[in-house]
Amino acid sequence: MRFVNTAAWRLRDPSEERLADADELLAWLGENGIGSARELKRIRSAWQADVGRGEAAYRDAIMLREAIYGILIARIEQHAPAEAALKTFNQMLARSMPAATLNWISGDVGWSLTSEGDGPDLLKPIVTSAAALMTGPRARRVKQCQDDRGCGWLFVDESRAQNRRWCAMGDCGNRAKAHRHYQRTRDQERR
């Protein structure tokens, strides 16, 4: 979800882009444990030598993010996703899966994903994680923040009662509760 939420305030026009360029994409990947520092440094150098490669990888990342968002929103709203979103996601998934291998890791079976490339390969952990989420039991728990100011972030509702409404209680939830309290207080004072 963190990757999908790199576009903030989705329900506002315009939304806020948190990954403005290829450098910010690499920084985000590093901050989120996708790719080693050495690997990301190598990719950054390659992109500096061939700016077009970096721009293409950045465009792929944004297209992937929007495809994932579109598919998840369609599921939340209980309708079929746009064909373009499915096509984009499936293309990225197809590019990602051939290099995925199943291995015995620390006494258990697990995926081994390599990120040797600088485009689709770099996005492999995001693609496979999104595919697992969208096809697994947690897919039913994906919701969109109900903040009335237009947050639009997606989250997985892990609450027992499945009644979570906001992306984060400390942010959108507090604002909504404070606003309701203000409205009640103001209405009581008018009476």
UniProtKB/TrEMBL annotation:
Domain Zinc finger CGNR: 141-184
Gene3D superfamilies reported for this sequence: Jann2411-like domain (1.10.3300.10)
Protein name as annotated: Zinc finger CGNR domain-containing protein
InterPro entries given in the database record: ABATE (IPR010852), ABATE_dom_sf (IPR023286), Znf_CGNR (IPR021005)
The organism of origin for this protein: Bradyrhizobium betae
